[in-house]
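Hi, here's the filled form for the chain we discussed.

Project: internal
Contact: R.S.
Residues: 224
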Amino acid sequence: MRILVSATFIALPLMALGGCAGGLSKDECLYADWQAIGYEDGARGAPASAVSSHRQACAKKAGVTPNMSAYLMGRDEGLIEYCQASNAFTIGARGGRYYGVCTGPEEGSFVTAFQQGNQLFALRNDVARAENALANAEKRLQEINHQIDHAEAALISPATPHLERVDILADLKNLNEEKQRVKRSFGPLRRDYELAQDELADYRAFLAANGPYPGALGVTSAGY
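And the returned structure, exactly as it came back:
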């Protein structure tokens, strides 16, 4: 089972976040509640640099600049809501990103919770990929069998010209070779699928024994 929960295992990207900042209209810029906008940015984990998008949009559309003190006050309030371990776990479990905005004593627990949630997300993706690979192989085998049936019917048809029969025989040879390759792939593909399922089940058992975080119970269910 792959359990990666230490802060040393996952590099968290510190990327600029665009979001809906550039979408402010002229009126929204003129009458903006910058504390509320800051709160929204903080509550969604946007970095402080997100305000630059607001600044550019409002300078262009309305010739105004954000009230930085109000914005930063609101953002700090939003970060209190965002920087909770239960929220971090949910973000990670849903494949979200963390932009390094949590500081102070809560940062370590936030990062650990995010990584645990992100591990759950990765293991679920492993199961989905393995399941899709197996389903695609089964679908391809059905297609090959259909093509073989069609080619064999054409081969014995009196209406098929002799020269065309030669091409059909070559096609049948290739199809049968591919059929054998696909059939041989089923064993490894099934093993990959079963292994991915086992790792996910083991990790869910780990979370059940070691958490999960309060408020994040739903994300460890079968739906996640």
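Let me know if anything looks off before we file it.
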